[in-house]
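Subgroup meeting minutes
Present: P.N., E.W., G.H.
Scribe: E.W.

1. P.N. recapped why we're keeping a running log of single-chain structure predictions: easier to compare across weeks, and new members can see raw inputs and outputs side by side.
2. G.H. added today's entry (171 aa).
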Amino acid sequence: VGTIHSMLSYGKLFSSTTNIAILGSGNVSQGAMNAASKLGAIDNIRMFYRSNLDEFYKTYSEYDVIINGIAVTDPTNHMLTYDHVKNMKKGTLVVDLAAQPGEAVEFSKETTYDEPLLKVDDIFVYCIRNIPSLVYRTASEVLSESFTNWVFKRDLQEYIDLAKEHGYNIK
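Output recorded in log:
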């Protein structure tokens, strides 16, 4: 959702000439890869993981779009810094889907639905927290299905025991 919304906010769709770097391998990054490839950039997408970030740092200035899906636990250990901005292409779009402003992406600040893009020097940053709320019905259905599957796969006795542990009188 964030990948599509960021591009629409930026006013430009992916094409066969859009060079995209995706940082991470989790669900967020996989979703970004899926969205970007379906929107026409399939041949120009490169995924980078923590294990090959050195390769990314050698080539980051070549990308039109950089999508971050990696959350960091140390807010001083930035994946992208202000120093990186100096070498990015003019107009690069940095999409911080980890949405922890100022952490993985040092120069990201929280943006909003009303103002989804922030200009930092000659690049643009997208960092909206809780972006699945943009498609709240779909998000609710997916979460409900996941929760229901999790609950109904468990033995009913587990819930009875848990309720008794918390003082409920269940017969």
